Amino acid sequence: MAGSKETQEIRRGKCACSTSRKRLVSKYLSVVFLVLAVVMLAYELSTVRIDRISCPPPYDRGVPRQELRMPSGQANRAERPAESVDLPTIYVITPTYRRPVQIPELTRLGQTLMHVPRLHWIVAEDTNNTNRQVLELLDHLGMPYTYLTTPMPSKYRKKAGSKPKGVANRNGGLDWVRQHATSGVIYFADDDNTYDIRVFEEMRYTKRVSMFPVGLVTNKGLSTPVVRNGKFVSFYDGWISKRIFPVDMAGFAINVDFLLKRPDARMPFVPGYEEDGMLRSLNITMDEVEFVAKNCTKVYAWHTRTGPSHGAARTILDAKYNNTNLQTIRENVYLNKK
Ligand code: UGA
Ligand code: MN
Fold first, then answer.
1. What is the C-alpha to C-alpha distance for residues 166 and 171, in angstroms, rounded to an integer?
2. Is ligand 1 within 6 A of the CB of residue 251?
3. Catalytic pick from 274, 275, 290, 331?
């Protein structure tokens, strides 16, 4: 007992002489901890990734457990096409950004993709902040999806002239595929285009890179490889320039395994040369390309554009609409800045 009392005293004595130093150290440690926590939180927020898997394995292969959640859009499951495990998965990467027509565009595209079996929709948004309206739509659709926030680097955003639209988004999607997929096909589907669901069955068995016609591109109204007797002849496109591969973003698909073997392949931040740069980085020649859509005779994808539209006017914020339907609607629409 005496010994322990002594020890206690010694300890107390020690404490007494170094209390202020200890306090200083612990203060210092808590500041360091706080700074670390803030940095980690900022990092997490800057790379938001949300995966929702509504179908049984093997969809969930490689997806972190805590991110697996059944979408609330269960009602739509019955309407989803039968899932056959034998089909290669199509990873559709869609760049998007906040604007008045965003949700209508994604609704139209999503309700096209819902008809395609074994499709995983990667929606990559040009933003730093998770977009609740997009997530609600994705949950409602009830299909397997991944939502990424992939902002355009500010050096490109600040630059005058044309911007590399959707490039950070598509590269973010490619990174996700590299981390989570081992087989299947990748397709870049802009949110404003129009797709016949037959295009997905044409690309599903792509071995390396497949190409197919896209309608409504440039003043020629069409972009496609020119094929004679099944052999590549040239490209038909309104803007050839210095491009080796003058094709539209919606006009090709890439095999996942083929991509995985080319770890440096990605899309360059060069406006107008995104497709060409991506295909060049895959180190492919035209005699390795597969010409699908019935030997490039069918147009199953169109480069449609939506005209500018007004978002909701801020008059719906007027207090006289409190406790009316407008109070709810204003939470769920694109509200004009002023
Ligand atoms: C054309 C091509 O089809 C695109 O693939 C290409 O990225 C673009 O030109 C380009 O070279 O800049 P276009 O119809 O002119 O497309 O462009 P948008 O449809 O306005 O944008 C392409 C995609 O990027 C869309 O899915 C859009 O939602 C997204 N985007 C656009 C962003 O993520 N951020 C933006 O600031 C603008
Ligand atoms: Mn477009």
1. 9
2. no
3. 275
Q: What are the b/e assignments for 107-134, b being 16+ CB within 10 Å? A: ebbbebbbebbbbbbbbbbbbeeebeeb
Task: State the Cα–Cα distance between residues 251 and 291, nearest whole angstrom.
Answer: 10
Backbone angles phi, psi at 104, to 5 degrees: -60, -40
Contacts of 131 (CB under 8 A, 6+ apart): 98, 125
| Calpha distance 309→326 (Å, rounded) | 20
> How many other C-beta atoms are found inside a 10 Å radius of the C-beta of residue 11?
10
Atom of ligand 1 nearest to the CA of 126: 33
Q: In which residue are the tokens 């797709």 written?
A: 195
What one-letter code names the amino acid at 338?
Answer: K
195 CA distance to ligand 2 middle (Å): 13
Closest-approaching ligand to the CA atom of 101: 1
Q: Are 289 and 208 in contact (CB under 8 A)?
A: yes
Residue 79, SS3 per DSSP: helix
CA angle (153 as vertex; 149, 159 as ends), nearest 5 = 140
* Ligand 1 atom nearest to 217, measured from its CA: 3
Mean pLDDT, rounded, for 63-85? 50
Report which of residues 29 and 275 the model is more confident about.
Answer: 275
In the chain, the amino acid numbered 200 is F
Q: What share of the chain is helix, strand, coil (3-state, %, to 5)?
A: 40, 15, 40
Ligand 2 centroid, distance to 304 Cα (angstroms)? 6
Strand pairing category for 209-211 and 194-195? unpaired
- Give the amino acid at 238: G
Cβ(274) – ligand 1 distance below 6 Å: yes
Q: Which amino acid is at 79?
A: E
Taking a C-beta distance cutoff of 8 angstroms, is the pair 210, 289 a contact?
yes
* pTM assigned to the model: 0.82
Å from CA of 49 to ligand 2 middle = 24
Residue 336: per-residue pLDDT? 96
Report, as an integer, the average pLDDT of 236-243: 97
User: What does DSSP say about strands 194-195 and 231-236: parallel, antiparallel, or unpaired?
Assistant: unpaired
Residue 64 reports pLDDT greater than 50: no
